[in-house]
Specification:
It is a single chain. The protein is mainly alpha-helical and 162 residues long. Strands 1-2 form a two-stranded antiparallel sheet. Helix 2 packs antiparallel against helix 3 and helix 2 crosses helix 4. One of its GO terms (biological process) is protein folding. Keywords: Cell membrane, Membrane, Transmembrane, Transmembrane helix. It is found in: Cell membrane. It is a multi-pass membrane protein.
């Protein structure tokens, strides 16, 4: 069970690191984010929060399984949003009125924390490559990796029930 808590902590740390890398990209390398970029930041931070909540407190198989399941669901949401960004949004002139834009603006996150959730580019303008790979694909790969870790941990937790 201790190993699963460590996996949960590692997922949370990697997820938070993804947000830090996005902020470095934005402020150091001048890569302004679009609505889908900052929406994925929100998902990464939700994953980190769920991991932190799962690590603190009294560990139990059920509790860890619930938090791992939530993390896995958030990873699926992240994969879906990154895929949508690559296949649809980055080929559109505007991200306005998309799910990501509405969540970020109507929740007030964009105006409350503009340094973190500010939308400063259209999806087409935010389409950049890093090491020859589109930035959104990097995000998708991180979500897939985190989801894989959560899945492996969930499988090990359920095997102990048998």
């Amino acid at each position: 069970m201790q190993r699963n808590r460590l996996v949960l902590a590692a997922i949370g740390l990697l997820s938070f690191s993804g947000v830090l890398l996005a902020l470095i990209s934005q402020y150091v390398f001048n890569m302004p984010p679009c609505a889908w970029c900052v929406f994925q930041r929100l998902i990464y931070l939700c994953i980190s929060a769920m991991c932190l909540a799962g690590v603190v407190g009294q560990p139990s198989r059920l509790r860890l399984s619930v938090f791992m399941s939530i993390v896995l669901a958030l990873c699926v949401a992240g994969i879906t949003s990154a895929w949508y960004q690559v296949k649809v949004a980055s080929n559109s002139f505007s991200c306005a009125q998309t799910l990501a834009d509405q969540v970020m603006t109507q929740s007030g996150l964009e105006s409350t924390l503009p340094w973190l959730f500010g939308i400063y580019a259209s999806c087409m303008d935010a389409k950049v490559t890093v090491l020859g790979v589109e930035y959104a694909y990097w995000s998708m790969m991180l979500f897939i990796f985190l989801g894989g870790l959560a899945t492996a941990a969930l499988i090990s937790l359920t095997k102990k029930y048998k």
